[in-house]
Structure formats: structure tokens, C-alpha cells
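Give me C-alpha cells for this 288-residue protein.
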Amino acid sequence: MAGETIAGLDAAGLEHFVDLVLREDLGTGGDVTSRATIDEGARLTAILAARHDLVVAGVPLAMAIFQKLDPQIEMEAVVSDGDHVAAGKPILQLRGFALPMLAAERSALNTLQHLSGIATMTRQYIAQIEGTGCTLLDTRKTVPGLRVVEKYAARMGGAKNHRMRLDDGVLIKDNHIAVAGSVETTVTRAKAAIAQLPVQVEVDRLDQIEAALAAGADSLLCDNMAPSTLQAAVNMVAGRVPIEASGGVRLDTIREIAQTGVAYVSVGRITQSAPAADIGLDYHRDDA
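Here you go.
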């Protein structure tokens, strides 16, 4: 189907991703250990299972990696991306030739564990702001080269993607203001130059808010403000534009921030610092 994506990747992007991760692991000589010790026709069944409660993300990518080395492999996804999986429960079942399965194992597991770790942490943050009406956003703090799939994992955890790239929207930060000279000048220039994109302005003081709004800011990013200051900002703006809170947000602080009435809270940690999920891969010889 035209426009269909897997984990945020179109067909060309998926092929590039799979080729890249396999080339990184296989090098030019491939899995020399398995080829030296295992008969070419040997077959295995395998189960990938959660070793702790997690939110899964990256199952289609793991399947694509296994299938790249064995187009005839039999696979069954027991769960879908975005599902909560209890410890001990299966995620993916495999049956096929041992050599390609073993060669693809680490690449597939690394991908699935990393993305599931992001989805799991994201869901934890989502749980903390439940009922507040606030939306969790991700950021551009991603591993270089993995942004598309990491932001996909954040979506599977329940977050909304913020800017994917620098050309997705105008975000005026303190550095832009420092160079341009003032909030008013910076916003005015941006609105004149890029009329088709919304302009968000980062503020770290309350006295910057009215100037940004008067110049035409479409939204505000309140950076590193204490909850009491955020509350004052919300009261000052009084619904004229959406407010996003950002900067040093942690799992134990996000609810208090969300309760100030901001529309969004952005958290870099969900892509930047999420630990890999623990997913096991158990093999059994298949003599059938």
C-alpha cells in the first residue's frame, strides 16, 4: 500500500535500516562461529519473551531483520507494538534455519530491546500525568541516525512527537534571541520569513512572555521554570496560546508540572536515557 510505513520507516528506509544494522554486526565475514560449529541444514525454533513488564516496540523491525537473512523463516508476532507485556510472556516466535537466525539474533534483539525500553519509560511518564489533560512530547534528543525509530517508540509508549527535524517548525531559543537582539525582533523576523510554519518561543522568565505574544508567537516553551513560576505563566497567558514546559523534567516531578495547567510537557529522557528492556531469546533444536 502506498505510503505504508513500518516503525515510521518507508520501504526504502526500512531496507536501509536493516542493511545498516546487519552490516554493522556481520562485517564482511559473517557469523564465523556459527558456520564453523553448526550444520548448514540445522533448524531451530525460538521464542523472544519479556523478562520484566514492558511496553513493546520494534517487533516489525526485528522480524524484518530475521527475514532479511532467511526469507523463508516462519514468524508469529504474539503481541503488537504498543502492547503492555507481562514478565515471562512471549513477544515473537520463530522457526527456521539455525545459521541465519543466529546471525540475525543480536541485531534484532538490540533493536527490539532499545525501542521497547523507550516505549516502556514513555508509558511510565504517561501514567504520571494521567487525568491532568497534559500531553507528553518527545524531543530531538535522540541517537544520531535513529531518530525516526526512537520517536516511533515514543509514540508506542503514548507520547506525541514534537519536531522531527529543524524544518518542521520554528522554535526560537535564547541563542536566537541573543544574536537577533530581542524577543520582539526575533519573532517578527521569523513570522515574516516563514509564514507557513507556527512560531514557538522559548522563555525562561515571566517578563519575556508579553513581548513574545505581542510579536505574534503561536506558542510558548517555558524552559526550566519551577512549578510555581509555571503556574504564574499559565495565569498570565490565560489561554491565549498553548504552553509547553521543558527542562530537567523527571518521573517524580512531571505530575506537579502538568498540574499547573500547561498543555504540554516535553521530556528528553524518554529517548535519551531510557534503559534497554530485558528481552530473552530461547532456542530449541527443531528436528522436524
